[in-house]
Specification:
This protein has 115 residues and is mainly alpha-helical. The protein contains four helices and two strands; from the N terminus they run H-H-H-H-E-E. The chain has a two-stranded antiparallel ribbon with strand order 1-2. A hairpin with a 7-residue loop joins strand 1 and strand 2. Helix 1 runs antiparallel to helix 2. The longest helix has 22 residues. The model has no long low-confidence stretch (mean pLDDT 81).
Length: 115
């Protein structure tokens, strides 16, 4: 029972470190992202024994199933989020073009046209 309490305490402590990092500003996204991954791996490493598993940090970080499509989806979502933030903060503009339609009714289109 004492061993379980100790490992649970280590998991909670690792979770607190991870959660604290997630709430910090990420001025340098690459460094922040790598530390996020490192803290998450540490959290998983400390959780493993509490559920009856033994994994090294290398196994957790390198031998996971992560489809390429998930990585691409995350990258695209990050680009979209950053673009929306730039537009909403006023540091970028949303390009718009006004074209005359067949009856000259001033059709408004986003530029470039979406597929």
């Amino acid at each position: 029972m004492l061993r379980q309490k100790k490992s649970s305490k280590a998991v909670v402590e690792a979770w607190k470190h991870y959660l604290d990092h997630l709430s910090q500003d990420n001025a340098n996204l690459a460094i922040w992202g790598q530390k996020r991954v490192d803290l998450f791996i540490d959290l998983l490493h400390k959780m493993a024994p509490t559920v009856g598993c033994e994994f090294s940090k290398v196994e957790i970080s390198r031998e996971i199933y992560s489809p390429k499509a998930h990585e691409e989806l995350e990258a695209h979502q990050q680009i979209i989020r950053e673009g929306i933030v730039r537009i909403l903060s006023g540091s970028a503009a949303l390009p718009v073009e006004i074209h005359n339609g067949p009856q000259g009714d001033g059709e408004i289109l986003l530029s470039p046209p979406l597929p």
